[in-house]
Amino acid sequence: MTAAQEPSARVEFANSLRGLAALSVLISHYLGVFWLKREIAADLANAPILPADEFPLPLYVRLLHSIDAFDWGSFGVGLFFLISGFVIPFSLQRYDWKAFAVGRFFRLYPTYAVGLTLSIAAICLSGLYFGREFPYSASEVALHYLLGARDLASSKSIDGIIWTLEIEVHFYLLCALAASWLRRGSALLVLLPLAVLAGSLLLSRHMPSWSVNHASAFRLGYVATFNGQFLIYMFIGVAFNLRHRGVLRSDMLPFVVAGLFGFFAATWYYSVHRYFFDQIWSYGAALALFCTAAGLSDRWPRNRLLSFSADISYPLYVVHGVAGYVALRILLDMGVQAWLSIALVTTAATALAWAVHVWIEAPTHRFGQKLARRRTAVGPAAIEPVRSTGR
Q: In which domain, by residue range, is 171 found?
């Protein structure tokens, strides 16, 4: 029995980290963005800015964000990206690229479409409550449902989280193109992050002039370099997959990981996105935790809370944001205390995510797997050791 076919206990650490990532993003939004970046939260919720004099910053929010170099959202997203890089190659061991694409579509899209619809409904509700018009055009809404088109059109984000799913889609495409290399664990895989690094650095040299003279080229370059840096980061997860399968030697893994993180940092630092480069420390913290957990994978215990959080992580990710901001803003406007508002909204978001998991995510995922199996399989039907977040 190969490593990829061993029981899921070998990768329980990844499932636990997936649950932790979901909780980190929830903390970031409900106990971070909503209070610390009130203009952004109000814009997403289609609501008036929460006045600081009436609603001062709660002490627990201040304590959670007392370390300036650490960002809960970036930490959670970093974990999600590493986990995706780790688990996606398992799917490509079993299916050809067409079957893989079918499976990924049904794993990602139906749940996202439901989450986006709920976000739009929440924005409409907020507009009715606060007397505001719906702030998006029909074409802007349509671009969101065509997942992968919004960023190319430079359309404003409706839900605030779609950018991570767009990176996931691009990572799937890259993995599908390199399916045979991933399947064999070919050394040629190193060419992919190197090519992304070289391409991003080349584009970054021209971006300042394009920002003045070629708006369309600047827009495409912006999208390419932004996606590129995180695609490199996700390949760190791929390196751990290769080690898990026995393709990459243990003594080589630290050098590969350090090199990829260096590529990630260089791509980010020399790009037009350097203005939020300080978030790299949070991605570094996510990597440090992932490395530690992977090193303890054989002894990693199962945790019920994190397992439940992992099960609902993707639907929670797509339903909690805008709808949560709207609910929090309305509850506070109605005079409900901050701590109680947060508790009520967190409970409601968790229940809604569970319902979407049971009625939408799980059935469509099974249906996608069924369709994928009908296509050409390329390997033995192994148990998928940990499910991708799809994001």
A: 3-374
